[in-house]
Design a protein that fits this description.
Layout lengths: L5 H22 L5 H8 L6 H4 L3 H26 L4 H12 L2 H5 L6 H11 L4 H18 L7 H16 L4 H15 L3
């Protein structure tokens, strides 16, 4: 079997990071390297050619997930014709939606990775990236009256509870209550 080109190696690495970012948000960081590589369409043996450790991948995948979140915030701002309040409202509505509740793999890393970040002792880089990402998200949600932390906590709490009660009518009530609490002043 021949060696892959540098370009192919970069593409493979990016594919693994994208796949890990989705799977970590959906299933947690405890997923095995073998399962992750299989989902990426690559062999298990190729993992250590690309990454020093699973913790190194967790770091990169967390950064990738927060990069996607930043892109969604910017897209919301552009769709809101540059008006921050309109962009925040659109993001809150999307965040506290059934679609987001049901698709953690494509969703917010703040909610999806919180449990793992609290329990992942070796992923120091991921903890730093996660902490910065949470801070940036809260700052983006800030209004003239508050720093955004309470808004983020309300969003995160509502989403986590809605996911935990997904198969009951309470789940959609939680999403609606979170949206109402965050947008009643609009």
């Amino acid at each position: 079997m021949g060696r892959v080109s540098q370009a192919q190696a970069r593409e493979n690495r990016e594919r693994v990071v994208r796949t890990a970012s989705r799977l970590f948000r959906e299933q947690g960081t405890h997923i095995s390297v073998a399962d992750l590589m299989k989902a990426s369409g690559l062999t298990h043996g190729g993992f250590y050619k690309q990454f020093a450790s699973k913790d190194a991948l967790i770091d990169e995948a967390t950064a990738h997930a927060f990069g996607e979140l930043a892109q969604r915030r910017e897209a919301a701002l552009e769709q809101g014709t540059g008006q921050r309040a309109a962009a925040q409202r659109a993001l809150i509505d999307a965040y506290l939606s059934v679609e987001h509740r049901d698709n953690p793999a494509e969703g917010c890393p703040t909610a999806a990775l919180a449990h793992d970040m609290a329990r992942e002792p070796g992923a120091e880089g991921a903890h730093r990236v996660y902490t910065e990402g949470v801070g940036d998200f809260a700052e983006w949600l800030a209004t003239e009256d508050e720093d955004g932390i309470a808004r983020l906590c309300t969003m995160l709490g509502a989403l986590v509870l809605a996911r935990a009660t997904k198969d009951s009518p309470l789940s959609e009530k939680i999403l609606a209550a979170g949206r109402a609490a965050l947008t009643e002043a609009d």
